Amino acid sequence: MTGKTPPVVIRRFGIGLVALALAATACTSGTAETQSGGSEPTDAAPPAELVIAPEDGAGEVAPNSPVRVTAENGVITDVQVAQSVVDEASTTGEEQDPGLYDMTGTLNGDGTEWVSDWNLRPGSEVVVTATAENDAGEETELVHEFTTLAAVPGQRLELASNYPSSGDTVGVGMPIVINFDLPVTNKEQVENSMEVVSEQGIAGAWNWTNDQTAVFRPEEYWDPHQAVTVDLHLAGVEASEGVYGVKNYQIDFEVGRELIATMHVPDHEMVITVDGEHERTIPVSNGQATRRFDTTSSGVHVLMERYEQITMDSSTVGIAEDSPGSYSVEVQYAVRTSNSGEFVHEASYNPAIGSANTSHGCTNLRMEDAQWFFENTLMGDVLNTTGTDREFEWNNGWGFWQKSWDDWLAESVTGEPQITDGSGTPGSVHGEQ
Predict the structure, then answer these.
(1) Would you name any one GO CC term (predicted)?
(2) Taking phi first (over 0 means left), then psi (-120 to 50 degrees means alpha), and beta for anything else, what does residue 154 get?
């Protein structure tokens, strides 16, 4: 924008072609002309009229303002929204696929109103080109240009981390975990800016574990062997007062085969099925249960990070060195199942594997079985444990399946499920309209 208000451009097409067609008809139908007796021509259809908001030439438009196009005397046939960032302070300078910012919109039933689905990029020049058609097929085009408010350094919401990452293959219990770099207070707008699409559509919903972490979980485990895409339309969303998202992101991952591990702790074994078929039974030793800390938790665990070698140190979970019950031991092939210190790992030093529960709460395996478990499981695979009096907490690691679907949905700020079939999110991403 140069400070000069651009002209409103209105073009109408098709009138000449209609006149030409009528002339050709008259030349080839002399009988019809005689029968008409020179009757008066009918009134021409009025041209379609378009209105676009925000207004033409506006500056510093709030990025979370909707683009709205309305038509009278016709129907909207096309809307194009082009965005060019002109304030580099509103970006990170990182190269991105321009397609991440393609604007889609929703047209009402009679074709007279179109509203943008997503917000606008902060600090950008926006050109909206709308076309409508009247009853006679004549077109009207209207163009508006305006600029959006730039994001202020220090008040730009960005993605801090996410699980899974693009390219990952995960298990059927995998949640989608989004960590932001700043607190979010407008959680409903942010939830509606994050669209999950899977090849096999299913109902799901977002919950917040804190003001900076949102988690998506489907109603049931993901169907195996499918692709999932997470479109984070964060650019322009007002996360909190004066704090705007500045970038869009896309995460693409695969759901692999369905691996479910089950343990009834008193039985001293883990049973593994893959795609519904028995794969392996592994002897184990679980927590000795002399205190809560030493008790393996019962519930649906999701496999998390993994280490080929790690030191199991009780001081990391609040038991000071040299205090009763403290320990420090090197183990191999460790897979985390909670944030409170539970792992499935090799414990060659434990002679009670398969016969007694003597661990400090972890699931101990023999070396061969631990290596197999490490190499053949994925982040997101499910470990369902029963038989103890310590219930696994829903917010301990990825214990999100501990909540019923009704409870999970009730805790979503939108209160409505998001169907992962590409039909969009439950509500608006925009601010006050």
Answers:
(1) extracellular region
(2) left
Phi-psi region of 172 (alpha: psi -120 to 50; beta: other; left: phi over 0): alpha
* Amino acid 427: pLDDT: 95
Q: Classify residue 285 by its DSSP letter.
A: B
What class does CATH assign to 9-147? mainly beta
Active site residue 362: yes
The reported pLDDT for the residue numbered 345 is 98
In this structure, are residues 42 and 49 in contact, taking their beta carbons and an 8 Å threshold?
no
Cα 5 to Cα 146: distance, rounded to the nearest angstrom: 9
Query: Does the active-site annotation cover 345?
Result: yes
Q: Are 173 and 206 a contacting pair, CB within 8 Å? A: no
Query: What are the residue boundaries of the structural domains of the chain, listed by start?
Result: 9-147, 156-257, 259-405
Q: Does domain 156-257 sit in CATH 3.30.499.10?
A: no
- CATH number 2.40.40.10 is the correct assignment for the domain at 259-405: no
Residue type, 173: G
Residue 181 contacts residue 246 (beta carbons within 8 Å): no
Q: In what order do the strands lie in the sheet with 213-218?
A: 159-163, 176-180, 213-218, 203-210, 418-419
Query: Dihedral of the CA atoms 80, 84, 89, 92 (nearest 10)?
Result: 80
Low-confidence ranges of the chain (pLDDT < 70): 1-43, 88-94, 314-327, 433
**pLDDT value for 37:** 41
Q: How many CB atoms lie within 10 A of CB 173?
A: 27
Residue 14 is predicted with a pLDDT of 32
Hey, what are 172's tokens? 């059927």
Which of 144, 345, 360, 430 does the annotation list as catalytic? 345
Predicted confidence at residue 101, as pLDDT, reads 96
- Quote the pLDDT of residue 44: 87
Whole-number CA gyration radius for the chain: 30
CB 159 within 8 A of CB 182: no
Helix and strand element counts for the chain (H, E): 5, 29
Q: For the chain, what is the mean pLDDT?
A: 89
Give the residue among 153, 150, 157, 202 at the shortest CA–CA distance from 176.
Answer: 202
Q: Which of 144, 233, 360, 362 is catalytic?
A: 362
Check if 156-257 and 259-405 are the same fold.
no
